[in-house]
Amino acid sequence: MNCIIDRRAQFSASHRYWLPELSEAENQARFGPCVRAPGHGHNYILYVSMAGELDQYGMVLNLSDVKQVIRREVTSQLDFSYLNEVWPEFQQTLPTTEYLARVIWQRLVPYLPLVRIQLFEHPELWAEYQGNGMEAYLTISTHFSAAHRLARPDLSYEENCEIYGKCARPNGHGHNYHLEVTIRGEIDPRTGMIADLGAFQAIVDRQVVDPFDHTFLNKDIPYFETVVPTAENIAVHIRDLLQQPIREIGAFLHKVKLIESPNNSCEVYALDEAALIPDAIAQAKVLVGSKLN
């Protein structure tokens, strides 16, 4: 029987975004406040995902052994370090979240049967690497507050109540929506980035957060004049709004996740990403496991 397990670890480190071949003004324009010397720091959270067959003891791997490998190969070296100088990989490529996730994979894969590395720089920015060359994923999270009413105009109030319950009440109700947007792309071998992070954030703000925040979606967003603004339909519309602008910064939209409440969320993939939807069971079946050293 195949199974995927996760091990969490953490470390604190600092880094600086600065390319010596660029002028101070050019670095400032590209990296913003991240150019400030001597750097800035984060409390990184690392999730290491591994897959394999369950053994006679009901385990994929002994987690004590896994913990020791992660500590030996990664966290003991990175904790309280200046990332730009700690590993030779960062001499030519900046230690961005996405590139750091890739390097951690490379450091661990000789010892662990990896399927995914997920690295949180902070709660609103994280990267994922799955072992595909220079390809990685980068996610930003944000939020907006909006009201909506779930009701089809061609149905009576009673019929809408039967379908949507309290959500069909005529004056609507509101949510603090939590939005996660994931892009996919090739890590630049010099900057360490999939795409310009500032440009990525600006697209999400311009296309979604600014126009959606503090609105009544049914009345203030033209799309929802004829489309019921369920969480699913909102996520689909956000996907459609973001797909082309993200292509224009050199990346691909991968996934939109919309959390309407702690009890209700949905996620949709970009139209050209349907074949790439992760299938953990399939990944586990084709994985060739490594032994712990």
Give an overview of the whole structure.
With 293 residues, the protein is α+β, with helices and mostly antiparallel strands. 31% of the residues lie in helices and 31% in strands. The protein has helices spanning 24-31, 63-78, 83-86, 97-108, 157-164, 197-212, 217-220, 231-247, 280-286, and strands at 2-15, 40-53, 81-82, 114-122, 125-129, 135-148, 173-186, 215-216, 252-261, 264-269. A hairpin with a 5-residue loop joins strand 5 and strand 6. Helix 6 packs antiparallel against helix 8 (231-247). The radius of gyration is 22 Å and the shape is globular. Mean pLDDT is 92; it is low at 278-293.
Concise description?
The protein is an alpha+beta fold. The protein is built from nine helices and ten strands. Strands 1, 2, 3, 4, 5, 6, 7, 8, 9 and 10 form a ten-stranded mixed sheet that branches.
User: What does the main sheet amount to?
Assistant: 10 strands, mixed
Tell me the fraction of residues in β-strands, as a range: 25-35%
Number of helical segments with 4 or more residues: 9
First-to-last CA distance: 23 Å
Helical percentage: 25-40%
List the helices and strands in order: EHEHEHHEEEHEHEHHEEH
Q: Outline the low-pLDDT stretches.
A: 278-293
Structure classification? alpha+beta
What spatial form do the alpha-carbon principal axes imply?
Answer: globular
Could you report the average pLDDT, rounded to the nearest whole number? 92
Instruction: Give me the Rg, rounded.
Output: 22 Å
Q: How many β-strand stretches? A: 10
